[in-house]
Amino acid sequence: MKLKNTIFIISLWVLVVAIAIFYRPLLPVDETRYLSVAWDMWVTEKFLVPSLNGSVYSHKPPLLFWLIHVGWYLFEVNDWWPRVIAPIFGLGCLFLTRQLALVLWPGQERVSLMAPLILFSCLFWTLFSTLTMFDLIQAFFALMALLGIVIAWRKNSIFGFLLLGVGIGLGGLAKGPAILVHVMPAALLAPIWGAKILQERSADLLIRWYVKIMFSVILGLGIVLLWAIPAGHFGGPEYREAIFWGQTAGRITKSFAHERPFWWYLPIFPLLILPWCVWPIFWKGIFANFKGLSLDAGSIFCVIWFVGSFLIFSMISGKQLHYLLPIFPAFALIGANGLSKIDRLGENLLERALLPCFYGVLGFLVLLLPNLPIFMNKVIWVSKLNFEYGLVIGIMGFWLYKRTKRHISSLVMEISIGSAIVVVCAHLILSDVLFNFYNLQPLANKLSVLQKQGYAIANFGKYHGQYNFLGRLKKPITVIGLLKTQKMEFLKNAPNGKIVAYYRSPPKKVKPIFTQNFRQMTVVIWDAREFIKNPKLGDRRANY
């Protein structure tokens, strides 16, 4: 049974990841930026301090970039290796979730089999796991640390405490101190969730527990500091302040980006756990588990983990949807434990039909999208949608309805197939749009040719490093803003240089070197001499 479950999970994972790699380009600005950081470090052979376009990059720790370098060292520089790193860790999260279920509910195999499938079935999780980002890596090490906590509590095992420390350390190198938010509530409140595991805990033993937890945290911080201290030294004062303050406590008190109110996550989270939020039987199982407020140790552990992290992230000023990804396994474990108490669906039509209807409605909306008044003849990319794949989603919903009389465990497997199909179809639906409006590879290739010919390159406006890796650029791009002095300095130093500029409506009377659509804009490469002759080219509102 376990082997069958493993093969099933890996098969779905391979399908989703393969489609994502072949049918979606690297997306600006995040994916292209992170690969450009790795590329900058690779070109300069400076692996301690991350850098982007020739300047230190303090926004993220180095673990993802190091992992990219390992693959490039083994397989040479390529596009595919960086794109499979996050999915590999996402796959690892599925198996760690299964292992955590086995430790939390020993002997309840159904929970361990369903939990990773519920996690995989969350559309936001699976869709996001195909992106080159940091959150799935951190989620993996958070799960490692949480598994260590449970093992340490059950067996007073040094291995558990070591697992906790290493998880904290590598999670910190993946995405900073947020790893502590996911781990420490469960560690500090172990006497609450663990009371039913070990009935007797003397004050002396509890003191020993917290001392060992402290040493695990010190071990984790030590792993991070092995990098942070020398990186702070060689990166300079600004970089040192950023990694020790700006990217830690600074984000908590007053985020420099993504600042949102306390309640922001609450109304959005139900959408993130689709399709489960629309299946009554799923919530019936959860509520049955909580009935009478007599929860087992595993459920209390997951509730503390989920609620603790959710509340802390709500209190932190900077908020993004993907910050919550490491708590999705807690949701999956709670859901699996609830469903394990249900054998089959009853004859209640709502319980049987609502979830399949979700997929049917979703497919219908995709088919209808091009004809909606809000989009029709107004949004240019709508015509590029491969909306016929909406029919596949709709048919899959009908198929799922025909299967609702099966055993709950089998039904969960089929729902995971449905979610995989939705994610695959989403890539196929959007593929032409993404390659027509988000693929910067052609422009980056042109910049690469120009740079190899000896021309200096400048970017007019804010630059996120989106061309450096795609074009394999060996030299930084000069960034010139709206200040006239910056533009004039570049034109003076490089009168034959080339300038990248962005327009809602590009000038028509001046011939550019290269043009490309990007989002709702046009990206243009100008010869610097045209900028000298036509100063208004720097005005992105100009239309002449």
Give me the strand/helix succession: HHEEHHHHHHHHHHHHHHHHHHHEEHEEEH
Strand order of the largest sheet: 4-3-5-7-6
Give the distance, in angstroms, between the N- and C-terminal Cα atoms: 68 Å
Strand content: 5-15%
Which radius of gyration do the C-alpha atoms yield?
A: 26 Å
Structural class of the helices, strands and pairings?
mainly alpha
Instruction: Let me know the number of strands.
Output: 7
Question: How many DSSP H or I helices?
Answer: 23
Low-confidence stretches: none
- How many distinct folded domains? 3
Summarize the structure.
This protein is mainly alpha-helical and 544 residues long. It has helices spanning 2-23, 30-44, 63-75, 80-104, 109-121, 123-128, 135-155, 158-175, 178-188, 190-193, 203-235, 237-246, 249-253, 265-272, 280-290, 297-315, 328-339, 349-368, 389-402, 408-437, 441-452, 484-493, 528-533, and strands at residues 51-52, 55-56, 457-460, 478-480, 498-503, 514-518, 521-527. A five-stranded mixed beta sheet has the order 4-3-5-7-6, sandwiched between helices. Strands 1-2 form a two-stranded antiparallel sheet.
